[in-house]
Amino acid sequence: MIKVEEKLFENRYRVDEGNSHVKLKDPAVCRDCETPACTWACPAACYTVAEQGGVSLSTDGCLECGTCRLVCNEHFNIDWAYPRGGYGVLYKFG
Amino acid sequence: MAERFDAIVVGAGPSGNTAAYLMAKAGMKVLQLERGEYPGSKNVQGAILYVDALEAVIPNCRKQAPLERAVIEQRIWLMDDRSHVGSHFRGATDPDEQPTRYTVIRANLDKWFSKKVQDAGALLICETTVVELLKEGDRVVGVRTDRANGDIRADVVVLADGVNSLVATQSGLRPPIQGKDVALAVKEMHFLPKATIEERFNVSGDNGVVIEMLGKITKGMVGTGFLYTNKESISVGVGCMVDDFRKMRVTPYQLLEEMKQHPSVKPLIAGSEVKEYSAHLIPEGGYNAIPLVHGDGWVICGDSGGFVNAVHREGSNLAMTTGRLAAETIVKLRDEGRPFTAANLKRYRKALEASFVMKDLKKYRDVPEILHGNRQFLTTYPELMSRAAHTLLKVDGVDKLTKEKQIKRDFVEKRSRFGLFGDAIKLMRALR
Predict the structure, then answer these.
(1) Burial B365-402 (b: 16+ CB within 10 A, else e)
(2) Do B199 and B279 touch, CB atoms closer than 8 A?
(3) Which residue from B146, B233, B246 is facing A37, i.e. has the nearest CB?
(4) What is the pLDDT of residues B212-227, one digit of tens each?
(5) Does the beta-carbon distance from B253 to A64 stay under 8 Å?
(6) CB-closest option in B129, B253, B274 to A84
(7) Domain co-membership, B260 together with B331
(8) In the predicted model, what is the mean pLDDT of residues B329-357?
(9) Which chain A residue has its CA at the smallest distance from B254's CA?
(10) Are residues B226 and B114 in the same domain?
(11) Chain B: closest CA distance from residue A2 (Å)
């Protein structure tokens, strides 16, 4: 299995510390979700199945594509916005 | 910010830059807002630039724009697991013909275009995210940004904020985009010496090759892979419908990794240094997914309005053309002293209908639906084609008539006579 971290390592980011632009609205909903598509469809693997159940989210490597928002189409449990101006991924080539 | 503008453009991609450039050039007081550190820093494309749409705005752009390679060869590959059947088109039809397609690196192109926009007199403010529109009743009167005291007013707002189209959605101007209408593409930038690229692809100077890949690399999902040569790098990526990733439990970077291991792809990128990994959505819902494109005090352009011809892999040219048609409509209304009401801005919709943008989208309006319900075009046929080529080309003492019969039997076995006939009709209907 390829590690996406190695890919993300090549990218440039300006992380907005403590200010995540994507949030899980209600973590309890994720614990009951049987098809957590965010955990396989996110191209930056920001979402992982948590050991204690549910989904854990880390947006540091987020590529701001918007896929997670679209695949969570049963529970609509993702609160998605762009990062504050100037923050987030900074593509060198794009 | 208490200052008032004639027009605000949200976004500094191809459609926003085109609109801002033309309005500023016509003497309008234009503010352009970009959430990235610099124009291009949030933008991702394959990328092939169809220069015609840019030439309509900046006539001598070929000489100035940061173009990578002129596309002199297009390959289309139907991929089986370990082989492909392909078609190539190489060359020009007449000796003086100028290329119409160039590979580009978007961060470079967007920065260059943005300089033009600013030289034309538009004010660009970066690192500023527009969060919603200011409205008075149904009328859009400006934007709210994420800056302190960040409300800015203008007579008209051009929404060119990209595929997620958050601003229009949050302001209730359009329904949210859906996974069935949008593809997710992931891409890597593979760097290699210029000479190595030219040797591997049999090109010289500033000429290049693009490869589009269909078939089993996308595991039955509706999508394509691509490989484009730049000057000193190769863009390699794959994109499939978001709903397909969701349903089929495929991980995008795993899909890309497997595509890179395909025996037809691997030698072309061997020894390269990867310097960036990106992901982006592409609106591929076509004509049926285009939202309302104008209203009181606003128009929508580019990816934000869903203007992509997925069948022909065209997007940035539709973005630039919609940006141009929006700007031309707005400038004309200003010249006539008419307000930017929904009724007056309807001219933009009419201009779109009269252009190749809507004509092409209309032509292929049924393609998304047909591919969606007929995965055999992406799995069974590439496999059959590959096997047919293999059977026919293998010299093993079996006579050719027997081989032809074998191929025919394979096709009938997989799809049945009735199925083959039906598929032919479906394909013809979708593409006519």
Answers:
(1) bbbbebbeebebbbbbbbbbbbbbbebeeeeeeeeeee
(2) no
(3) B246
(4) 999 999 999 999 999 9
(5) no
(6) B129
(7) no
(8) 98
(9) A2
(10) no
(11) 7
Residues B192 and B267 in one domain: yes
Please, which residues 19-58 of chain A have a Cβ atom closer than 8 Å to chain B?
A: 35, 37, 40-41, 43-45
Write down the mean pLDDT value for chain A.
Answer: 95
Q: Alpha-carbon distance B26 to B263, whole Å? A: 53
Nearest to A91 among B245, B274, B276 (CB): B276
Number of domains in chain B: 3
**A-chain residues near B257 (CB < 8 A):** 2
Task: Give per-residue pLDDT as tens, B149-197.
Answer: 999 999 999 999 999 999 999 999 999 999 999 999 999 999 999 999 9
Q: Is some CB atom of chain A closer than 8 A to the CB atom of B249?
A: yes
Taking 80 as the threshold, does the pLDDT of residue B1 lie above it?
no
Closest to B51 (Cα-Cα) out of B311, B305, B320: B320
Q: Give the distance from residue A78's alpha carbon to the nearest chain B alpha carbon, in angstroms.
A: 14
Last residue of a domain, one of B236, B258, B283: B283
The answer to whether B242 and B184 are in contact (CB under 8 A) is yes
Is position B77 within any domain?
Answer: no
Q: How far is B95 from chain A (nearest CA, A)?
A: 33
Q: Identify the domain containing residue B187 by its residue range.
A: 182-283
Whether B129 and chain A come into contact, CB under 8 Å, resolves to yes
**Which of B304, B341, B223, B421 lies closest to B43 in space, CA to CA?**
B304
For residues B230 and B28, what is the distance between their CA atoms, to the nearest angstrom? 37
Q: CB-based contact (8 Å) between B1 and chain A?
A: no
* A·B CB contacts under 8 A: 141
Whether B290 contacts B361, CB under 8 Å:
yes
pTM of the model: 0.94
pLDDT classification of B429: cutoffs 50, 70, 90:
confident
Kindly report the CATH number assigned to the domain that includes residue A70. Answer: 3.30.70.20
What the block records as the tokens of B215 is 């078939």
Assigned token pair, B299: 């128009």
